Amino acid sequence: MTETLGSSTGSAANGSAARGRRSKADGPGGLKLERLYTTDGVHPYDEVTWERRDVVLTNWRDGTINFEQRGVEFPSTWSINATNIVTSKYFRGAVGTPTRETSLKQIIDRVVTAYTNSGRENSYFATPKDEEIFAHELTWMLLHQVFAFNSPVWFNVGTSSPQQVSACFILAVDDTMDAILNWYREEGLIFKGGSGAGLNLSRIRSSKELLSSGGTASGPVSFMRGADASAGTIKSGGATRRAAKMVVLDVDHPDIVEFVETKVKEEDKIRALRDAGFDMDLGGEDIVSVQYQNANNSVRVSDEFMRAVESGSEFGLRARQTGEVIETVDARELFTKINTAAWACADPGIQYDDIINDWHTCPESGRINASNPCSEYMHLDNSSCNLASLNLMKFLSDEGTFDAATFKKAVEFVITAMDISICFADFPTQPIAETTRAFRQLGIGYANLGALLMATGHAYDSEGGRALAAAISSLMNGTAYKRSAELAGIVGPYDGYARNADAHKRVIRKHAAANDQIRTYGGNDAETLKLATAVWAETIATGEKNGYRNAQASVLAPTGTIGLMMDCDTTGIEPDLALVKFKKLVGGGSMQIVNQTVPRALAALGYQAEQVEAIVEFIAQHGHVVGAPGLKNVHYSVFDCAMGERSIAPMGHVRMMAAVQPFISGAISKTVNMPEDASVDDVAEIYMQGWKMGLKALAIYRDNCKVGQPLSASSKNKDSADDAAKASAAAPSVESHTPVRRRLPKKRPSQTVSFTVGGAEGYLTTGSYPDDGLGEVFIKLGKQGSTLAGVMDAFSIAVSVGLQYGIPLESYVAKFTNLRFEPAGMTDDPDIRIATSVMDYLFRRIALDYLPVDARAELGIFSAEERTAQVSSSYSSYDAEDAEDAVEELRTSVDATPVVRPAVEGGSAKPAADLGGRKAGSSTELLEMVIGKSADAPLCFTCGTKMRPSGACYVCEGCGSTSGCS
């Protein structure tokens, strides 16, 4: 970098530095803007209908209130879910105080005002009228969910907090103890602020090299242990996510095998220690034995290595200081170890080093060595990127065509605002502040691609779908760089541009050349590509004259929380999760709906209104389109989703990424999901094709490869159901209005189970009737005479008396499982690997011992043996009669599902029935009920709801929390 601009915490200093530079480029006099969405003389707020709503977020399992704010003001067009997310996550001020924000107007105003004021102070606008247009257009687009800034903008801008606007950070570490300790410190500061960071450890000497003192170096993997402990302790102080981090190691590092196998060995260790009775809770005393769980790991592979894999030749591992080869390995053998580890535990991912640096705009200032935690931001060490994403469905016309011209103009406004933010932004460290201000990296992107493709009648895995996605991405990136070049002529290029001008212009030409290679199939893609081609020509001409304001312009982020804020059906580049969704309702409660994009897709494919209604009705009942009345087989692929009856093949995800990657400055946050029966060779093929197709990064996830993620039964066991019916018939009848206590005989069978939950040890004794019905429970927990022991004794008596009076055991299990309080964590019970509390464990154990399989299936409780049998049976062959019975049972179950299907006309929704009495708390859990298989998604650490995939991360539909970047 050529200049240090201001401090990392002083907005005034940032502004003065920017003003100092601006004097060199005062000539053009600022941007001349034209209105896109707004009307002169009419404020955007006056064009919408506002209403007051109560936001009360409850835990759907036990009804406890997680958050409450009543009387908040939102447009009537915003969904309840978007209202809940914005109110609970983005409103500033203590709840219940006069300083608390109460209206969407307030948060939009504080953000837009800050951007507009900074734009005026730094001479971005030609006249006060242009400034007003900018403010109104930004307000209108935010108000109508056309785009959203990343979460740090909503947290910090316009508040008394430091004005941090970046969500993504890349750090650096050298081969010195001072640098390593500073890495721990900087990473901790970023986690404390609620963001994530990534770095490459390849500069650190391997454990096979000598120190200057004559001893042997520790190696990067040993230092990862300390950083992992730090991340696990901090777990982010931010409002939306835990500590997210990425650790990268070059494939030619001598410790590469140790790095690759770290998580595989830890997974094995978790199993072994858990089964041996050790306390493996995240806060337990034995957790120090399990490491590396707080980071995503990626191997940075070179073209040299991949070619060696292809040819089956040897590959040299090099000393970090001298570069000499100190060990030679078989390239295919090493590649197999990488693939085997990814197959076993989803880590490591792959980053393709030569491809990344071939598209690098600033090679004279340093290589690109690492990425942020979700792998979409890749640039210089000690840098950051602020993100914003556009909602592609907002550009779909009523006629079903993509409005490329409006999209282009919207990108111009958004990228202008993003660049302005760097003028006033604060950063967590001085090196990051200096690099970001000198190179001004931006990350414009989009969400809802999957919904757009479906609504326009394109299969996600199709040539037409990829062509449209590529054309849109090319138009977005070309427009962003065009505006960047225009801004360079007004307020000057980025400080590092002069040194990197040739390289930057070469990359721009590569983008334009890739645009010329897009093959169109008529309609949306052809018109969009035509405009993109014209834009690239203007971009190159303007860039030759002015240079560029930004070293990087675009990424494709997960768009987790902000995707919910914009009411997007799909996130980032992802396809739809499933055709049936989970929707929150006004006044509380929820229901299932068929995706609103399905009727639009059917209309785009030429189906008549009556046909559309029949097909939607079928989807509402079955959750898929296979066998839908009147739907042509050739159109099935349009409705393929990430999961379900017809899921997109893994290579289909890779092909979509490859179509879009040439038009993204950074990379793409996406995980390629693979079925459980995928082989190591299948993983190898994905990683090899990712390299050949020109991707920058790729990660896979094989279903159920992690500990504690079993399948759940899709249909009930008939024999168990019959047994349950017999047991029910044999039980004495009890008048509902006259409870009768059925006492246990003096001598009755009983059993005692010792248990450990999160370090707490105890004993569970249960006594049963001679006919094998549970009749009493005794729980020993805590020292004799302690308050805890007394409370547990009283609780045991209450439960026992209730059982003897006829309260169904299922009721107790449903009430007390999933309660969340300490102690919690790993247990010593092989059937119950982790418990959210002692109560959760105890009643799961009781259910396993006393409830039939079908009753437990309703509650999602299975033994280890049953889970193993389910996995085996799910992939075994069935005879025709078994298959017919299974289909009939599934149909019977799903026919009773409470589904709301959108009417073909008017957009109203009609309710239907309940899914066998079962309830879902999120779209992921609803999907699990339909397909009968675990979605392998984690529980939200804030509200306990099962999250859904969002790029390479996860997002909670209940509260908006994410596991990575927003």
UniProtKB/TrEMBL annotation:
Nucleotide-binding is among the record's keywords: yes
E.C. code: 1.17.4.1
Segments for region (Disordered): 1-32, 711-751
Amino acid composition bias (Basic residues), ranges on this chain: 739-749
GO biological process: DNA biosynthetic process
Keywords carried by this UniProt record: Cobalamin, Cobalt, Disulfide bond, DNA synthesis, Nucleotide-binding, Oxidoreductase
Domain Ribonucleotide reductase class II vitamin B12-dependent N-terminal residue range list: 56-145
One Gene Ontology molecular-function label: cobalt ion binding
Cofactor: adenosylcob(III)alamin
Biased composition (Low complexity): 1-18
Pfam families named among the record's database cross-references: Ribonuc_red_2_N, Ribonuc_red_lgC, TSCPD
Biased composition (Basic and acidic residues): 716-725
TSCPD domain mapped to chain residues: 745-849
InterPro entries tied to this protein: RdRp_reductase_class-2, RNR_2_N, RNR_lg_C, RNR_NrdJ/NrdZ, TSCPD_dom
Residue span(s) of domain Ribonucleotide reductase large subunit C-terminal: 166-701
Keyword Nucleotide-binding: yes
Swiss-Prot/TrEMBL catalytic activity: a 2'-deoxyribonucleoside 5'-diphosphate + [thioredoxin]-disulfide + H2O = a ribonucleoside 5'-diphosphate + [thioredoxin]-dithiol
Family designation: Belongs to the ribonucleoside diphosphate reductase class-2 family.
Cited NCBIfam families: NrdJ_Z (TIGR02504), PRK06556.1 (NF005122)
Record's function text: Catalyzes the reduction of ribonucleotides to deoxyribonucleotides. May function to provide a pool of deoxyribonucleotide precursors for DNA repair during oxygen limitation and/or for immediate growth after restoration of oxygen.
Protein name as catalogued: Vitamin B12-dependent ribonucleotide reductase
Species per Swiss-Prot/TrEMBL record: Nakamurella panacisegetis
